[in-house]
Structures are given as C-alpha cells and as structure tokens.
Design brief:
The complex is a heterodimer. Chain A is of the alpha/beta class. Chain A contains 7 helices and 4 strands; from the N terminus they run H-E-H-H-E-H-E-H-E-H-H. The chains are: A alpha/beta, B alpha/beta.
Chain lengths: ~180, ~450
C-alpha cells in the first residue's frame, strides 16, 4: 500500500460523489421532503436480493419513507421489484463501475441518511455478518431483516402473490413466487 | 441571547405544531442543555406542551433537574424507542450526541428537529465553508490514517491489530484470549488501542507491543482500512465492525452472549470455560489502603460509573451506601476524572487499573455496575456483586448479554438486575447473603 493507492481510492469516491449528485438532481431530491429512500442493489444473481425486495416495504414504513428508488444492474431485480412493492418510484440501471464508485463514496463516509446498500457483503466490513450464519438459528433472511434493514423481530413475510400469472415472464414468476426455499 | 434565533425558534415550533409533528401526545426532549433549551422549554410550556427532559451526552449532569425538568443521558431518555418521542435540538454541534441519536434511530427531520437554524453566512465565509465539506474532512481523515499507518509500521514491521473502542473490559477479554493462546495472536503483532487506560490494561494483561493512539488517529486508521480493504494489512479486532456493521440487532434478536461474539466474529475459536492462568503482577496495596483508612475485609467498594451502559439512578447508590454504613461497613466509591463524583456518605478513592484487583481483595467486597472495571476485578478473591440496569429497549437482557457466567476467570460473581430508577433496597437480599457469608475472605 502506498500513497498512490490511497489517492486513487479517494478519486474513486469523488467520482462516486459526482454520480450521487447526478442521481439526486434527477430525483428532485431536495424538494422531496426527505421521504425518498435510495436503495442500491450492488450484486447480480445474488440470492439475498430477493429478501431485500421482500422486506423493502417494511423498511420504508419503519423509516418513515413513502417512496423508494432502486439502483441496480440485476435484471431480475429490475423485472420483479413491482411485484414486491408499489412504493418504488423508479429503478435506475447502473453500470458496475458506477456502482463501485458509489460504494467507495459510501465507504468514505455515510453521505446521506436516505441512502442504503442492500447487500450482506458490501461495503467492506459488512461481510463479517456472514460468520453468524447457522449460529443461534441465524439465517440470511434474518441478516437482511434484522442486520441490514434493522427491522427487529418482524415475522417472516410470505412470498408475494401474483394475480395474472399468464402475463408474467415464467422466470420472474418463479423468482417472485418461489418463496424462500428456492433462495436459501 | 440572539433575538433572531429566538424568532426562528418560534417559527420552527409553530411549523412543527402545524404539520402535526408536535401534538399533545408527543413526548418532547430538548437537547443539549443550554439557555436556548431553557427558553424553548418555557415557550413549549406556555403553549401547553410538556417537556419530558433535557438530553445530554455527558454523564455528570444526568439525574439533576433544571426548573423541574430532569436532565438525562441520551440512552436513558431515548431507550426504548417510541413513536411519540421527539428530540428538539437547539445546538447541533455535538456530533457524538447526533451519532448516538442516529444509532438509536432518531433520524434528522424524522425524530429529531433542529429548531435554531444557523445564521446565514457571508459570501467569503461560504467560500471557506466549502473547504470544511464532509468529503474533504473525511478525505483528510483517510490521509491521516495513512500517515499513522506508515508511522506505526515504520517503527515495528509487524501486523497491526486495531481495537477501535475505548473499552478496558474488552481489552481484559482480549488478554484472556491472548493467554489462552488463540491462533490470531500467534504472530508478531502490535495492538493499537485508544487512550492510556486501555494501554495500561493491555500491558497489564501481557500484550508485549502496545501502541496508544488518540480516538481521531484510530478512527482514521479504521477509515483507511475500510477504503483500502485487503490492501491495508491492519486488522480491526472487535465484533462490532465500525461504520458498516450489520450485526448489532442480529446479536440482540438471536440472544448472543458477547463472548460468543468474539469467538465467532473475531477469533474464530472458542474461549472455553476453563480458567486461564494470567501473568498478572500482584501489588502490595496495604500501605495505600491504610492511608485511605480502609479496614481490611470490612470495606465495600462501590463502582457506580459505566461508559457504555445506562446509568442507574444515584438514589440507588446513595441508599445502598447508607444501608452498608449502617451495617458497619466502610464504604468507598471508585471514581476517576472530573466527571465522576463520590456517592453521598462514602469516601473517595481513585483506584489505578493495575492495582484494582489487589485493592478489591484487600477491601473484601465489591458492588458495581457492569463495566470494564468490573471485568478487571472479576477474578479477585472477594465478594462481588455486579448490578445490571434493566432496559426495555433490548431483546436480549443486558444481564444475559454481558453475564460473567461465560467468562472463564470470573469466579463467584453475583449478578443482579435492577430498574434504572430502582431504590437501594433492591439489593437487600444480596446484602443479607453477604452478611451470612462472613468477612468475605
């Protein structure tokens, strides 16, 4: 590790700040009265994404947010979020590079109380919680619910029900209604 | 007082009442305790609202009253979390206080409101303020972390272990792991701790290379670690990984014990239950104790102060001291620093951390709140009663989370849970047991 490494990381976080500014400008964030939560889903094909979507509404309710904006690059999250929550105002697709810059900015400091990272391993340091899996009946669902979302002992949610199943992409249908068994 | 600020305060309060944030059911706390808060309390009273208390971060002013309104510690006032509770800030400069509120989920503009907005800055001041923007302040912190890392590794080319919190109890526990011979401590390492007290305990417990840092330096090092991730060779050794942790509520809801947290999240191997032989130096404290007028085996040392747990009401300790004195014991209070004052009716005794064990053994009895000091003396050959505050905000009781039952070297520690506003008589049952036990030697 040398000073160039440190400077490079700082530059990345500065770039993350610029990206964050761009997002908030688009959302009229300042005029929103603080009721929009921005949730970043940094992983693709990650099983925990399902749980983060499943408890999103509870999380918004507990933190007094009325709407959410999702930033993701996961196709399944993009296609399925509307089945989990009606409070998602927008889903922004971001490239890997942008997401990593934003995470680096978040690693530098918690720049906004309305920004959340839906991950058990990002930002660095959070992966520590995975070591609790299997001890005292800790599950991934619980790490999402109590660990990241801090919802306490909320009862487990059932998978959302879809009414017009024929109109939905079968892969999405399986993802949404598959329940927690298919995501463990 | 600034008239403009008072005017702003009026406007802001009117706004909060109009949008339904403050209603008759709201439990209002004002923070911190300053002249604007007093003024605000009067204004709220005149509008028919009741102020439940003043919230402060320091322990010394807690349990006092100002014009009939109690002054409370943040955790005491805001735990348990209730929807009706709202904090009105008249000064938002105390970042520690704000962080504590964030931790307790009293978010800015959701559960806490700043009613005295800062004065608008002049053009040049606004320019200067740019340099103080968080991104620059935090970047500077990372660079400080890098310089500190370079300084520490230049002096000793070995692994750095960072213990980020100012907690002597945890350092004692790390000492137990060290003397048990866990794998993490097999290599050549330097333990970095915050503050001289932690440094003293670390050396006392047998750590060979200890670096004492300031809290700012430690925070900077931790920030550097989080930014550079695995490229920075330092390792944070605490179960509550600062800034990005996701574990605290899981530990609480799933009833973990804090030894289990270290076993799982830090060392990856269990501490076990067998007593561990510690290389502790024994001190001859008889001269010192005689100087303070301590009767051997007939003295009770009270330790009412803790940093991380909510404080039990002083009334509890005062009644307890009175009862003990009536029973013929000599009663001393362990207090250090300017913020800790002796309990009424007791003698003052500053106990150095290295000598704590020997002094408690000489005294014969120890009654204290669960704290790092209690950890240090848990192995002393004396009667020991540790008191836990009963808090409603946690799923796992503090007595279960911090219990001495899982600490291998804690022998014969009686543990009792009392409400925060308990009276000293809650301990009478234990005291009777102590009397039956004789002199405690």
């Amino acid at each position: 590790m040398n000073i160039l490494d440190v400077t490079a990381e700082l530059m990345k976080s500065f770039a993350g700040k610029l990206y964050w500014k761009r997002i908030t400008r688009k959302l009229d964030y300042k005029e929103s009265n603080g009721d929009i939560a921005v949730v970043l889903f940094p992983h693709t094909n990650e099983e925990t994404n399902y749980y983060f979507l499943l408890y999103l509404d509870d999380f918004l309710k507990q933190r007094n947010f009325t709407r959410a904006v999702i930033i993701t690059r996961d196709d399944m999250v993009k296609k399925s979020y509307s089945f989990f929550s009606h409070n998602v105002q927008q889903c922004i697709t971001a490239r890997d590079k942008k997401i990593s810059r934003l995470l680096m900015f978040y690693s530098l400091f918690h720049f906004d109380g309305r920004f959340f990272v839906a991950s058990l391993t990002q930002p660095y340091g959070r992966e520590q919680c995975l070591q609790l899996l299997g001890i005292n009946e800790v599950t991934k669902e619980q790490l999402v619910k109590s660990g990241v979302y801090q919802l306490g002992n909320l009862p487990n949610r059932a998978a959302p029900k879809i009414k017009r199943k024929k109109q939905v992409d079968p892969a999405v249908l399986a993802y949404v209604t598959g329940g927690r068994d298919s995501h463990e | 007082m600034n008239e403009e600020i008072l005017k702003l305060m009026d406007e802001r309060i009117a706004q909060l009442i109009a949008n339904g944030t403050i209603t008759e059911k709201t439990i209002l706390y004002l923070s911190p305790l300053n002249e604007y808060s007093l003024q605000l309390a009067n204004k709220l009273k005149s509008r028919g609202f009741r102020v439940a208390g003043y919230c402060i971060s320091a322990n010394n002013a807690a349990h006092q009253e100002v014009y009939g309104v109690p002054v409370m510690d943040v955790s005491e006032a805001l735990i348990p979390f209730r929807k009706e509770k709202i904090v009105l800030l008249t000064d938002a400069s105390d970042t520690t206080l704000l962080k504590q509120m964030d931790f307790l989920e009293y978010w800015h503009n959701v559960k806490r409101f700043w009613v005295t907005e800062p004065k608008p800055l002049s053009f040049w001041k606004r320019r200067l303020q740019r340099a103080k923007r968080p991104i620059f302040v935090e970047s500077k912190r990372v660079l400080t972390g890098y310089r500190t890392f370079q300084r520490l590794t230049a002096a000793q080319h070995n692994q750095l272990y960072l213990f980020p919190h100012r907690s002597i109890g945890d350092i004692y526990l790390l000492g137990l792991y060290l003397n048990k011979g866990v794998q993490l401590f097999d290599r050549d390492f330097t333990l970095c701790v915050v503050g001289n007290a932690c440094g003293t305990v670390a050396k006392y417990m047998g750590f060979q290379k200890v670096s004492v840092l300031t809290q700012y330096e430690m925070d900077s090092l931790c920030r550097l670690k989080l930014m550079l991730q695995d490229r920075c060779s330092a390792k944070i050794i605490h179960y509550h990984y600062i800034y990005h942790t996701a574990v605290p509520q899981v530990l609480d809801t799933n009833h973990f014990h804090f030894i289990q947290c270290y076993d799982t999240l830090v060392f990856g191997e269990p501490l076990g239950t067998k007593p561990i032989r510690l290389p502790l130096k024994e001190y001859d404290v008889s001269a010192l104790c005689e100087e303070y007028g301590m009767a051997k085996g007939k003295t009770v040392i009270l330790a009412p102060y803790a940093k991380s747990l909510p404080q039990i009401h002083m009334k509890f300790w005062e009644e307890l001291a009175e009862e003990l004195s009536a029973q013929g014991y000599q009663v001393f209070t362990n207090c250090n620093g300017s913020t800790e004052i002796p309990i009424k009716g007791t003698s003052y005794m500053p106990i150095s951390l290295e000598e704590a064990n020997s002094i408690v053994e000489y005294a014969g009895y120890f009654i204290g709140i669960r704290s790092g000091f209690a950890d240090l003396v848990c192995g002393a050959k004396a009667k020991k009663i540790v008191v836990y505050p009963k808090c409603k905000g946690y799923k796992t009781k503090l007595i279960d989370f911090y219990s001495f039952q899982n600490i291998p070297n804690a022998v014969g520690v009686d543990e009792i849970e009392v409400p925060l506003d308990s009276s000293g008589s809650a301990l009478s049952r234990k005291l009777k047991a102590m009397r039956r036990g004789g002199d405690g030697q």
